[in-house]
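The following block was generated as part of the benchmark described in Methods. Ligand: iron/sulfur cluster.
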Amino acid sequence: MDNITSRHDPRFEVTMYKYMGVENSHKLDFYEQHGGYQTAKKALTTMQSVDIVNEVKASGLRGRGGAGFPMGVKWSFMPPVDGRQRFIVCNADESEPGSTKDRFVLEDDPHQLIEGMIIAGYAIQATLGVIYIRGEYHLGYTRLYDAINEARAKGYLGKNVLASNFDFDLILHRGAGAYICGEESALMNSFEGYRANPRLKPPFPAQAGVYGFPTSVNNVTSIASGVHIIAKGADWFKSMGTQDSSGFHHVQISGPAVRRGVYEVPMGITYREIIFDLAGGVTEPVKAFIPGGSSCPMFPFTDEYLDLTMEYGVVAKAGSMMGTGGIILIPEDKCIVDALANVVHFYAHESCGKCTPCREGVSTWLPKMYAKLLAGLGESGDLELLEDVSHNIRGRSFCPLADACIMPVQASIKHFRHEYEYIIEHGKSMYAKKSRWQE
Amino acid sequence: MKVKVNGIELELAPGTSAIDAVFAAGSDVPYFCSHEYMSPVGSCRMCLAKIGAPRKDRATGNWVLDEETGEPQIFWFPNPMATCTTAIMEGMVIETEAEEAVKAQRGMVEMTLINHPLDCPICDKGGACELQDRAYEYGEGISRFEFDKRHQEKHHQLSELITLDRERCIHCKRCIRFFEEVPGDEVLDFIERGGHTYIATVEEGLESNFTGNITDLCPVGALLDRTSRFKGRNWEYEHTITSSLDDASGSAIVLDSRTGRLERIKAELNTQVNKLWIDDSTRFGYEYVNSSERIKTPLIRKGDNLEAASWQEVSEFIADKLAKLAQKEAAIVLRADSTLEEGYAAKNLAKILETGQIDHYPRQLASVIPNNSASLNDLASSDAIFVIGDVSQNVPIVDLRIKDALKGVAPPEMFEHGVPIADLRLKERMIRKKEILTVAAPYNVDLMRHAGQAHIYEANSEEAIFKALTKIANGEDSSVAAMSNEQAEALVKRLNEANNAIIIYDGFSLASPAAAIAARNFANAVGAKEIILGQMANSYGLEAIQVLPSHERYGYAEIMQGSAKALIISELNPANNSQYAQNLKELELLVVHSIFENETTALADVVLPAKSGYEKQGTIVNLEGRLLEVNAAPIDAGQAQDFEFLAASIIAALGKEGKEDLASLAHKAIRKQFGVDSKKLDPEGDLKPLKPRANNKAKLHIQSTNIGNALIVPTMLRLEYIDKNPHLLAERGAAKLTMNSIDADANGLKNAEIVSLDVAGIKRSFSVQIKDSVPAGLWLIPALPEQAIGLLELDRASLKKELEPA
Ligand SMILES: Cc1cc2nc3c(=O)[nH]c(=O)nc-3n(C[C@H](O)[C@H](O)[C@H](O)COP(=O)(O)O)c2cc1C
Ligand code: SF4
Ligand code: SF4
Ligand code: FES
């Protein structure tokens, strides 16, 4: 990521990302000087937990981890308090290729996340919070680690937080390098020390989460959004975005854009605005873009799709997903088969191995098919076979990881079938260009 | 709830899984990961079907109706659903034969097979393989996968008993789930991920008493029983369903035999007893029957030698000798795993010989018949269990059924297709209700790991413990050995308040009649049912039909000390005791019915070849009071016969044949005593618990003492055969002498050192095992059939080192 430029976008006042990249923004002093922990204080000392849940519900905030489930509604699924331990879990495993929005919060503004966790914990009456952070996020880990200690020393964590009679503490847990640990139930298994396989649902985390106790799992920027919703109110949040998708989101642009980076934007903005206005356009011809991280089906780089507004419903209707908001641009002269081989390789490597279609289809068969095509050994029938096997995998797996691989594959065939046909017919790809990492 | 499966409407209980609905409707759907009595996990994705359900309008609460038909509209799930993890809903429609379901199933078979080596021609599972069958039924017949298959280790020895072929594994996770869910021993897991995933142990070996079950439940030939590896093809085996004589549970097993040899034992379903599980001794402890050392013909003494003879010849010889004896001079002793029929035969023979010197052994002073008996299914749904003793070694299945109770899920209702395939009440890693289980024993026993409360008490304090607990139950003050007052009170309270409290005790309590009475009184005081763990398969039955001495002068120990002039003894080796050997030499007639030669056959006048428990036909009564059928597999055992044949031959030679043969006498006697037709027993047995007799004349026992420095402890292994069970021996090692490190140091002993020791007259060899969980000063010695459980005074000076550990 070269720059973060959204702070300079005049149309929009940045909140969560306000202090990204500012020196010492990760320190408690800095955070306190800029109003830090005042919202937690307000929440814990002047609001009932149910008020917070209702405020978040009213804001319409949808989960930023990918699935887009409304956070307030998820919180309201927590069973009544019955004396058992309850957990709030922050999913900071951010591993979806093309996604990097959580990283900046973790590295540059960890106290904001801690404050969000205190509020979230209070909202669902969980006295323990878990932040499960991706193993590779070393800087984020050390900063968060230090920040938690700072917060604890200052009484923001521990017994009687902010003199409110509410006890709350945080456990920081590092992953060990598996994408599947971002799936909430695999995350909980991993946290408990088990193999990171997704669990059967139901029961959902609210019924039986960490160690079987009531739990809510929420993404980093979902949790951090809570701070601003409580600080400024649901109406303020809803003043941004649309009916379907309220508030702001963080789009992350990678690929041949002039200004690659993370942008805090109001929902409802068009992809054209993001790519051309914020990111400054493209540096070379682009043929497709992925709207929300590698698992989301790609769109051709045409007016029809560029003018879509960034809303959960709109993107879904157009055949893809909002995902994490990680926009990936695919250059014109990048062989689509090669590009997808890369995507498939990722999911093949990350399959947890629990279920047959993913372990055998995604993790074993697909990479071999792509390797065959790229080696110039494609034969007639291979494309149809790829389509049929993809069909046999899609919608049959235990968790969405297999679909996360299949949907991009299917989209690539749908939009760029001729590239597949070319490579099969000619034994080489339509475009000679190799990926930068391949050179 | 009403559901419709492939057009058939049926009414099922809420909570039923869609896969059970499919089978209940008489339809079929393939499945690999689901398994009876284990949690559904939905990982194989094989059981896919097209599923839909009607919906209620949120506002009105009425069904949303189809505009054309006026019927509730069916809303189909967008994708085929795994039926095993889907609970039925009112009005659900399940279609396993819809085009998209069939396509999904085919696709899944193809993917399941892409990494499978398809080496069926050399696979022990071939012909009895779920993958083979399902691929044949639901697959396309050809594979479109043209690449190299995954190569992994093909002969990974998980233990001496089990080999894992990692290429054949289809990752259904049944084996892993089994260990976690059933015995609670987490010894297996997947390692690596994605296409590289394979099964492995965390540490070397499989630390569990139930490992063999994974060879049954593996849907492919990935987990194989090493005792039977490459011994035969499945279609060549004769399958004989029978009850195991390995312990007092009478677990259902299948004997797979071929060309006169027993080649494998598998678990058979008995929903009342062992469900689908058996312990490793029951499964792997059979190899001795194929031993070339078996006695195959009757033998008769000619000078110093035993020479082969016919049954006719030796029967006449025996009859001649017996005819010369006066009343009460002959003695008959059966082993406690003999069948009821053998027991009646012995009684009839004793009657003809006019002797009351008849007994079965091993047997203890107190009765093994509970006053208020609990069944094993009662146990599985119990809400308060107090165990005193070592269940896991005595009767391992009882250990498993206790673990059922800890899950708090009662035994499932049966379907017409049998046990639910996917019982949605079961989950992976269920939180166990440990608090309902209290375990006390004189040393650290395995079940303590699973207990809410565990107490190690000083050996031989069973009576005191039960008495003290009874006082507390009666509202008096008392203190209980090894328990705090709060613990004791909490235990009594829990048992008192439970709906289904159960007390389980074993030989440690039976060794003293007073302790057994105290146990019974305590059970009464808290309103608990009892389970008593007899030492052998038919301990209950032989006591019930009174294969017992007519007077306390005539018990096993007295017979061995010279109370008789002639002895007919079946499958016991009393001459391993040097003192008894002296007495046996004095006998005018010693007839030994035995499978193998031993110290006792060496003294015999006549040796008769005995049938093993896999070759007999008959009936036993398990510890619940359940009559179970024992069936004979076609095993070549020469002229071996059971005790009924032996008795009949002698009676015939005595010229005392009655109107009826022994078999019909036994048949009648069983009907009279238990009220069942032993020829028409239910396949799961007939539960006919009796009451203990008020006046049990059989009271003799010489080994048990009130003080002692060693404890004969139960062992799940049949040590008398272990030398001829090579695989089990390799896995489990020689008999262990277990002691605290203080004792080991005092005697200069190291772990695994081989020693010999005189155990109350029997010279035995052991491998030393040092465990600090054993109280200092107490040595633990696993029981032999000739040595009932209990405390004894050991001459520690007789200890000799035989071999340093490697
Ligand atoms: C394969 C897979 C990977 C996922 N990875 C992440 C992740 O890295 N971070 C995340 O927040 N959510 C991830 N999710 C989504 C989570 O399961 C869960 O929906 C989310 O954490 C809920 O938080 P939210 O409601 O705030 O979005 C993943 C889901 C799947 C199926
Ligand atoms: S789709 Fe199946 S194998 Fe893949 S990650 Fe999910 S559960 Fe694991
Ligand atoms: S070894 Fe057998 S039981 Fe275990 S996961 Fe593999 S196929 Fe299933
Ligand atoms: S997914 Fe394996 S049986 Fe249903």
